[in-house]
Specification:
4 copies of one chain form a homotetramer. With about 160 residues, chain A is α/β, with parallel strands linked by helices. Chain A is about 35% helix and about 25% strand. Chain A has a 7-stranded parallel beta sheet, with helices on both faces. In chain A, helix 1 (about 20-35) crosses helix 5. Chain A is globular. Chain A starts with 7 loop residues before the first strand and ends with a helix. The relative contact order of chain A is 0.19. The model of chain A has no long low-confidence stretch (mean pLDDT about 95). Chains in contact: A-B, A-C, A-D, B-C, B-D, C-D. Chains A and C meet through strand 4 and helix 3 of A and strand 4 and helix 3 of C.
């Protein structure tokens, strides 16, 4: 099967994260790989590393779109490092390269990725992440998930 | 006085906006120019155009950092068009070029700019714009303002 | 073997090209795949498509780093489409993601990629492509190759 | 007169340069300012700094489109610092923001800017800079100038 026909799913979240977030990210990565999806992420530590670790443990393909100038900054579970040299502008490529995004926790960088995804019409599934309201009205664009399996189910719908 | 010593303030918001938002943006632009600040924006329509119009009416300098390949896409009140050809990646340059950001209304593109600003430690003042909570806890990083004058006051603090 | 240990080689050249250039690109792609290298390119037509076709015919992995907003612009032989939405800024990611670059023919876009590679200290092997002189003195940084096999040999040195 | 009606001319060249190149760049900057053009550059040292110094000495407007995350990296003669955080991708914005480009000496970064300009159909005037040949045939797209005044004349044609 062509990998182009495969689903590309981005997993986003903090470069540093709690143990609970890492556990969720690893479970998400495992489940994506089991179901044949290709994992796209920002290639660094925290949630990104845990998700890549999970995917790798199931033999999945992991893509890390890096902000800096060197593929050595990739975490050890990234199989395909993309070196952009463009700093946080790479956040845009992370989400645009995916058919759906799973956000786990995360800080403002993650929020920028959520925003760019929603702006591009790419579904965002959230696990313990940001919620939004606009001018006082809740914006429910981020699809909530209760656990990693539900997140992956919703991403691969 | 060197313009480099001047304050650069970004005004962000929708490329389409309500009449009320346009009115606020125009007032913000006027007030920034009266106080000698240089206006930075994304250079297009809606809030960006209204802010540039206000600043221009007071003789202010207006910078429009454009997503496309042509300075003709700038609104007519942009004095300094910067042509990036980089699409939404230009959002990052809009906020990084400013010492503070004033967000007026806006959709996901504006939210991405808010996120990039907060990630870079640049203060964001909000007028009828997004509010955030993270993992169920309110994130009060966006500084609320009641009206254009208060927003400019807070941006120029 | 981890794909990260594999060599990533960029093949650059015109989005439109002569039949001879396409033939060379396809041979380069085939040879890279036979030798286990991963092909990185800009993902579009001409030299990029021919190189991907060659690599695919030998079961190789092909990465296309796209300028636009949609993976549908990728040629049909791209297995890993990276969607940047950043226009020609993606040229930088194409070369930075590689350990060596093979340039085949090409116009100014290709010349920009050659320049970015040389600026980053990434070797460039040339097949019927640009040659340079600086202030009247030849600059021999582009390593000439006589044919696709020699180009691949030099890229994988 | 609206500054938008003014001509924006990019001056490109090495971040380090010879005394002779600095003298030429300063003369180019002065002449551009005398003739009412706005100077666009990469905002750093060498040719960029000398050109900004020349333009400033005649009261000209100088724009520096910076690669890093901080306007403090701008040379002291930059009046309008644009902070991109995108590394060398900012080279593209430097040339796209101009109606013509004057290249003075320079290394591979300058060559990338020349390439991006020619790719975008923006005229490039050269002073002691790169010359090109493509597949063995000279490419005369870079318009030669003998001295700074001739370079400015050709840029403002």
């Amino acid at each position: 099967m062509s990998e182009k026909k495969k689903r590309f799913i981005a997993v986003i979240g903090g470069g540093e994260c709690s143990a609970q977030e890492a556990e969720m990210a690893e479970a998400v990565g495992r489940e994506l790989a089991r179901r044949g999806a290709i994992l796209v992420c920002g290639g660094l530590g925290g949630v990104m590393k845990a998700a890549c670790k999970g995917a790798s443990s199931e033999g999945g393909v992991t893509i890390g779109i890096l902000p800096g100038d060197n593929n050595k900054e990739a975490n050890p579970y990234v199989k395909i490092p993309i070196v952009t040299g463009m700093g946080y502008a790479r956040n845009i490529a992370v989400v645009k390269s995916a058919q759906a995004v799973i956000a786990i926790g995360g800080s403002y960088g993650t929020l920028s990725e959520i925003s760019h995804a929603l702006q591009s019409g790419i579904p965002v599934i959230g696990l313990n992440t940001w919620s939004l309201s606009r001018n006082g009205q809740p914006d429910n664009s981020i699809i909530p998930a209760q656990d990693p399996t539900e997140a992956v189910n919703k991403a691969l719908t």
